[in-house]
């Protein structure tokens, strides 16, 4: 596979940007194995050798979703510079395919990526990269047409997901099965049985218009697309992802192993900045929309401040608790929250969940993955542990001192 031309890497400031993963994107990334990946790997090595040690600039790649908040806050508040690093302007990409291709080629070196997709990149495409921290917890939702009042009402209808290897796909399929429904993948013209729900991979920006046009009955995706559908009165949130899997990770910080091995001080600085950004965000949720909105100085995302304010509101979640949308009120959550530690129990549960979740494409690599082995191999928590200590310790993020927890999933 050839190295992507510069024109294939777009800086997108349009609300209609393609932030999902099409079937073509899926096939492009699936080909990044063996000999086909060599041009990317060699290009990445060349980039890595240009600048030694901490002199390497921080080159962030991100999609315009709230999952990228810590990376963007760290850049806006010059937290990388506080760590003695040089940070270039973050690069906004149109799709997961583009961001992964640029990451593998070394054009960018710090990305946020769907937590299940990291397994696919490391073990499916065999690109050596590791999770060094979580970006956030929760932050996604199942948004449906106004006439849909329960998961069972989705029977015989189509629901969109952003990518097969996403927490969205895992949680949607769990909800469907727990409610007696069967996830299927059929052509748009195929007739569905009353107990079947057709899964459609679709870019998030297209989900809102598809819901408005009744081409789909709902979608499950990261904010602020759920908030945008609500504000524009196109759909309503049926469930929040964090109300199904308590404090789960959606996107994580992913760094190439070559940087971890050759530039540990640089990786530590990057992680320190991201952790500090999360600590700041916890106390300044109301300021984040002003940093990330299309009206802001940096124009990190194409989303308006009003839409982002709904996501980061400290009081809005109570309305969902009072209405019954949020069922687990004792979990004391927010729509999106921040804590950086990548719990091994989550990674293990994620692998087990993928073993029973339908995904398209060759997934033979999944059958070979042992949950405990993946938790040790996919994640390098040395840097985030030190960063948390420097930030004030686990109590800053309401984390247990032993960095251990049990996973809680419910329907």
CATH superfamily descriptor of the largest domain:
Periplasmic binding protein-like II
Predict the CATH topology of the largest domain. D-Maltodextrin-Binding Protein, domain 2
Tell me the distance between the termini.
42 Å
The total of helices stands at: 18
Count structural domains: 2
The profile of the biggest β sheet is: 6 strands, mixed
> How are the strands of the largest sheet arranged?
8-9-7-10-6-11
Mean pLDDT over the residues: 89
Helix content: 25-40%
Radius of gyration, CA atoms, in whole angstroms? 20 Å
Helix/strand class? alpha/beta
Globally, the shape reads: globular
The portion of residues forming beta strands comes to 5-15%
CATH class descriptor of the largest domain: Alpha Beta
Annotated CATH architecture of the largest domain:
3-Layer(aba) Sandwich
Low-pLDDT ranges: 1-23, 33-40
Q: What is the strand tally?
A: 13
Please tag this protein with its features.
alpha/beta; D-Maltodextrin-Binding Protein, domain 2; 2 domains; 5-stranded mixed β-sheet; globular
Walk me through the structure:
The protein has 411 residues and is an alpha/beta fold. The protein has 2 domains: 6-136 and 249-299 and 338-397, D-Maltodextrin-Binding Protein, domain 2, CATH 3.40.190; 140-243, 3-Layer(aba) Sandwich (D-Maltodextrin-Binding Protein, domain 2), CATH 3.40.190. It is built from 18 helices and 13 strands. Helix 15 (344-355) packs across helix 17 (371-377). It starts with 22 loop residues before the first helix and ends in a 20-residue tail after the last helix.
């Amino acid at each position: 596979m050839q190295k992507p031309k510069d024109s294939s890497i777009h800086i997108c400031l349009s609300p209609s940007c393609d932030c999902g993963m099409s079937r073509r994107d899926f096939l492009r990334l699936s080909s990044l194995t063996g000999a086909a990946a060599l041009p990317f790997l060699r290009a990445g090595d060349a980039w890595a050798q240009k600048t030694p040690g901490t002199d390497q600039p921080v080159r962030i790649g991100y999609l315009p979703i709230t999952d990228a908040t810590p990376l963007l806050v760290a850049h806006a508040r010059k937290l990388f510079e506080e760590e003695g690093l040089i940070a270039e302007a973050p690069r906004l990409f149109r799709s997961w395919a583009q961001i992964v291709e640029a990451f593998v080629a070394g054009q960018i070196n710090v990305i946020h990526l769907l937590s299940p997709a990291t397994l696919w990149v490391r073990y499916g495409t065999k690109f050596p990269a590791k999770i060094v921290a979580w970006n956030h917890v929760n932050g996604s939702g199942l948004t449906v047409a106004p006439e849909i009042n329960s998961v069972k009402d989705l029977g015989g209808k189509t629901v969109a997901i952003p990518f097969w290897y996403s927490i969205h796909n895992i949680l949607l399929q769990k909800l469907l099965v727990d409610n007696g429904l069967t996830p299927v993948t059929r052509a748009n013209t195929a007739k569905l049985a009353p107990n079947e729900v057709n899964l459609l991979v679709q870019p998030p920006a297209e989900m809102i218009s598809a819901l408005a046009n009744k081409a789909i009955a709902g979608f499950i995706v990261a904010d602020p697309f759920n908030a945008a559908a609500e504000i524009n009165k196109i759909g309503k949130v049926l469930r929040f992802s964090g109300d199904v899997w308590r404090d789960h990770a959606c996107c994580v910080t992913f760094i190439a192993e070559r940087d971890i091995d050759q530039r540990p001080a640089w990786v530590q600085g990057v992680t320190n900045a991201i952790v500090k950004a999360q600590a700041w965000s916890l106390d300044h949720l109301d300021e984040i929309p002003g940093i990330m909105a299309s009206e802001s100085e940096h124009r990190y995302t194409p989303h308006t401040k009003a839409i982002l304010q709904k996501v980061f509101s400290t009081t809005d979640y109570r309305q969902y608790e009072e209405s019954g949308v949020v069922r687990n009120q004792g979990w004391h959550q927010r729509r999106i929250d921040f804590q950086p530690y990548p719990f091994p129990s989550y990674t293990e549960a994620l692998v087990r969940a993928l073993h029973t979740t339908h995904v398209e494409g060759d997934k033979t690599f999944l059958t070979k993955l042992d949950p405990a082995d993946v938790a040790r191999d996919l994640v390098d928590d040395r840097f985030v542990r030190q960063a948390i200590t420097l930030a004030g310790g686990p109590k800053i993020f309401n984390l247990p001192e032993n960095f251990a927890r049990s996973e809680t999933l419910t329907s």
